[in-house]
Write a structure and sequence with these properties.
Layout lengths: L38 E7 L11 E8 L5 E2 L4 E6 L6 E4 L3 E2 L4 E8 L11 E2 L9 E6 L17 E7 L18 E4 L9 H4 E4 L15 E2 L2 H5 L11 E12 L6 E5 L15 E6 L15 E11 L2 E6 L4 E3 L18 H5 L5 E2 L5 E5 L1 H6 L2 E5 L7 H4 L5 H13 E4 L10 E2 L2 H4 L6 E2 L20 E4 L3 E6 L2 E5 L14 E3 L9 H4 L7 E11 L11 E4 L5 E6 L9 H18 L3 E8 L10 H14 L5 E2 L15 E7 L4 E9 L14 E10 L7 E7 L23 H21 L4 E7 L7 H8 L3 E2 H5 L6 E3 L2 E3 L2 E5 L1 H6 E6 L36 E5 L5
Helix pairs in contact: 9-10, 11-12
Pfam family, one: LTD
Keywords: Signal
Length: 848
């Protein structure tokens, strides 16, 4: 079907690219030779390189009988012997100018003295006397014997000599010194015998334009079949249908796709889509660059951060002035290799099947959402496989196959800041530059979270920028309404942990939890002149950046916002004992050590009711404040449900510079039992091991690249010290059950945790909730937060749940990004109260 040059794009099924626009699919008509064909075979010669020949090669010459250039992309010339049915093909590229000729040079022989001037070079060895030559509208070899002259893909056919297939009658038998040429006016009566005469070969390849002159090319020729264009720095003329346009947001260009292409990729392996960048970003996008228009573009080919593009001035983007066939969105599965993705770069694509959100960290900054093909996010390899193992390598390979990023059709950096006084003027440094904007895909009413299913309701364009394969919407998506989003997202938020997971083996009598409170400091940045801040869009400090030992909130307002989220999350946990990580060690600031902890408990009780919560006082086992870190671990509990047994404990004799906890927080412990009724004593231990981000002092602490990050030896030593210390404390207080919670900074299959597994401890998170995780980093999910139990505590366990309120949420919801955007995303809800997810374990009070 042909449509007017301003008809809109064909789409898949009932999906339209613009509201209210009905789109139709193109059809492909059969070819078969026609006396009115635009391009026909003009000359055939098979004696090249033979004895007595002048030319060293065989050739086939084509002629364009029309007054307009004709694109040959995707076509081929093909040859079979006089009686054969096995055809060989030479693919064609480029175009023939109006009234021009195009020569395909074929196999070279030992004789002859001159090379055939050519536009394309093939390798087919043709007979010098009898054979069959066809012009075909695809590169697929023909599969026919005596019926090719009427086959649908064939545009023209010449049978010469004793050929068994021809149009009308065969052309003359040839020799080493004669070719079959059409009569003077390139007559085409569909009778080879009448239209061709034998004579001296006269190959006339199209002339080469002067250097720098734009030459007509297909989009496929511009893209090529490799990772970069074969025509970089060349000036070209291309035509196509506009499939996506970005007049705002920084792209300042549009996507162009060859008319009539889709829903399958080209068998040539070259893409039929390309990005057109309009130079002069301060000027409006060209008026013809509207989705659905058929345009001609003259410009220079280049590569921009891995993306093939054609740069054109506005004057060089014009309406093509022709009718055209619409394009259809590709409906193939997302390719698993870079080569497969290169073959569809720049083309309209309709994602089908399962897609899962795997990364939301870049959403706040760049308006992009990391996706994984399939029903689960990408995984940290050491979460599910031993470090350095073939299984771990297989996870990395699987991640590469499944990853793609949904972009917003813009290059805006929504959190861009400057450290330059020239930019910031008298404003605090760093100053936020784009605070008047709102990133796409960030919402409290329709949140986009790691682990959620993404459903595509409209096509996208396959794009590659800044080292990532991307889906670009056909128009910029603008937050917070996200009206032009091509995808919708499942909302997986829950108001509380999953009781089904917690009560898998019966109703829990008690619940314990692990929760990282994200540098909860009550000694604030604005109280120390040495502290430097991160600033919001109104130049108010939000969090401590550098310059001092304080962390977390900048001033009282920021602390209030942080506190209300922490309180909301902890109260909703409905746990009876909670281990806390990353809370201020107030002793380092000259206060009683539990000052910040007491403030958090007071806030919890203000919301939940007086006396609901209490904290476990810091142990006298701890080393001097000089040997402690500025952040510490702590415990809170609900006195109505559990009671403390004796004093709190700590592993306080391993904090020297070369000892196990010289670069980590000391483990703390407290024995508990159910407040009323029969109950087993259990020892609750809170841990916070050395982070992966920097190397500790021990051999092997350097990052070896096995997936465990830096400081593996430090964490192994910490696990060994914990293993050796805990049983004695439990025995001292008669605690049969041992429950060790915390941020181990180790994924589930890593070496530090293996120390504890071998000592008889079980990770209840992976036992009871194996497909959910507590942390997301670089788009990979895994658990750094674990609750480990001994055999008796495992018998007490009823189930466990990772409550995914933090790691999968956009950081825009965090108190530390308050007032970064023109939309206020802050709420008192628990979502993004931290960067780690809490883990909750249900326990029976007593087991035999």
């Amino acid at each position: 079907m042909r449509v007017h040059r301003r008809q809109v794009i064909g789409a898949v099924g009932a999906v339209a690219l613009a509201a209210g626009v009905l789109t139709t699919a193109a059809t492909t008509a059969g070819a078969t030779p026609s006396p009115s064909a635009a391009v026909i075979i003009n000359e055939v010669y098979g004696g090249g390189g033979n004895s007595g020949a002048t030319y060293r090669q065989d050739f086939i010459e084509l002629v364009n009988k029309t007054t307009a250039a004709v694109n040959l992309g995707g076509w081929s010339v093909q040859y079979a012997s006089a009686s054969g049915a096995s055809w060989q093909a030479t693919p064609l590229t480029g175009s023939i100018p109006a009234g021009g000729t195009y020569v395909v040079r074929e196999a070279t022989g030992a004789g002859g003295t001159q090379d055939v001037p050519s536009n394309v070079i093939g390798t087919i060895a043709m007979s010098g006397t009898s054979g069959k030559v066809a012009l075909v509208n695809s590169a697929t070899p023909l599969d026919c014997g005596v019926s090719c002259s009427t086959a649908a893909p064939v545009l023209d056919l010449v049978g010469y000599g004793a050929a068994n297939d021809y149009l009308g009658s065969p052309a003359p038998t040839l020799s080493n010194t004669t070719s079959a040429s059409r009569n003077a006016t390139s007559t085409n009566t569909l009778n080879n015998g009448n239209d061709f005469s034998a004579g001296t070969p006269t190959p006339a390849a199209g002339t080469t334009p002067p250097p720098g002159t734009p030459t007509p090319k297909t989009i496929a020729e511009v893209q090529g079949t490799g990772s970069t264009s074969p025509l970089v720095n060349e000036n070209v003329i291309i035509k196509g249908v506009v499939t996506a346009a970005y007049p705002t947001g920084g792209f300042h260009g549009f996507y162009l796709q060859t008319q009539g292409t889709g829903p399958e990729p080209s068998p040539s392996g070259a893409s039929d889509g390309v990005f057109v960048f309009q130079s002069g970003s301060s000027t409006p996008l060209d008026a013809d660059a509207v989705v659905g228009n058929y345009v001609e573009v003259t410009g220079k080919v280049s590569e921009f951060s891995g993306l093939t593009e054609v740069t054109a001035a506005a004057a060089d983007i014009v309406d093509a002035g022709e009718d055209f066939s619409p394009v259809q969105a590709l409906t193939v599965p997302w390719p698993t290799t870079d080569a497969g993705r290169e073959s569809i770069e720049g083309m309209l694509f309709q994602p089908t099947g399962d897609y899962t959100v795997t990364n939301t960290f870049g959403t706040n900054q760049f308006g992009e959402v990391g996706l994984a093909v399939g029903d689960h996010p990408l995984l940290q390899n050491t979460e599910v496989a031993a470090p350095g193992s073939p299984e771990a390598a297989a996870v990395v390979a699987d991640n590469a196959k499944r990853a793609v990023t949904l972009d917003d059709g813009a290059s805006s950096n929504f959190t861009a800041s400057s450290f330059s006084t020239a930019t910031c003027g008298t404003r605090p440094i760093p100053c936020l530059l784009n605070g008047d904007l709102t990133p796409a895909y960030v919402s409290n009413t329709a949140p986009v979270r790691v682990g959620e299913a993404a459903t595509f309701t409209a096509p996208v364009v396959v794009d590659y920028r800044f080292n990532l394969w991307r889906f670009q919407p056909t128009a910029q998506v603008v937050g917070p309404d996200n009206a032009t989003s091509p995808a919708t997202f499942e909302n997986t938020r829950t108001a509380a942990p999953d009781l089904g997971d917690i009560n898998q083996l019966g109703t829990a009598d008690l619940k314990v939890a692990s929760f990282n409170v994200l540098n909860y400091f009550t000694d604030l940045g604005d109280q120390d002149p040495a502290c430097l801040a991160y600033y919001d869009r109104d130049d108010n400090g939000v969090t401590v950046r550098d310059g001092c030992d304080r962390r977390g909130a900048w001033d009282a307002g920021d602390l209030a916002r942080q506190t209300e989220k922490e309180v909301s999350a902890i109260n909703a946990l409905d746990a009876d004992v909670v281990g806390l990580m990353e809370i201020e060690n107030s002793a380092k600031f000259g206060h009683p050590r539990d000052t910040a902890l007491a403030a958090l408990v007071a806030a919890l009780n203000a919301k939940a009711g007086a006396g609901t919560w209490a904290f476990v006082p810091s142990s006298t086992d701890l080393p001097s404040a000089d040997d402690q870190d500025f952040i510490t671990s702590a415990m809170i509990y609900r006195p109505a449900k559990v009671m403390r047994v004796d004093r709190s404990r700590a592993l306080g004799d391993q904090s020297g510079a070369t000892q196990a906890f010289g670069n980590a927080r000391e483990p703390i412990a407290q024995t508990f039992k159910k407040k009323t009724g029969k109950g087993d004593k259990f020892l609750f231990v809170v841990n916070h091991f050395k982070s992966k981000g920097s190397a500790g002092p021990f051999p092997g602490d350097e990052d070896t690249g096995d997936g465990q990050g830096a400081s593996v030896t430090s964490r192994i030593l910490q696990a060994q010290a914990l293993r050796d210390w805990v049983p004695g404390v439990a025995a001292e207080y008669g605690a049969k059950g041992i429950v060790m919670a915390g941020d181990y900074n180790s994924y589930t299959m890593e070496d530090p945790l293996d120390v504890l597994y071998k000592a008889g401890y079980t990770d209840v998170g992976s036992r009871f909730d194996p497909t959910s995780y507590s942390y997301s980093f670089s788009g990979l999910s895994g658990s750094l937060d674990h609750i480990l139990v001994n055999d008796h505590a495992l018998r007490m366990s009823t189930g466990a749940d990772h409550w995914n309120i933090n790691s999968g949420e956009s950081v825009a919801m965090e108190y530390s990004r308050y007032n970064y955007h023109s939309t206020d995303f802050h709420t008192a809800l628990p979502f993004r109260s931290s960067d780690h997810d809490p883990v909750v374990l249900g326990l029976k009070a007593f087991v035999k």
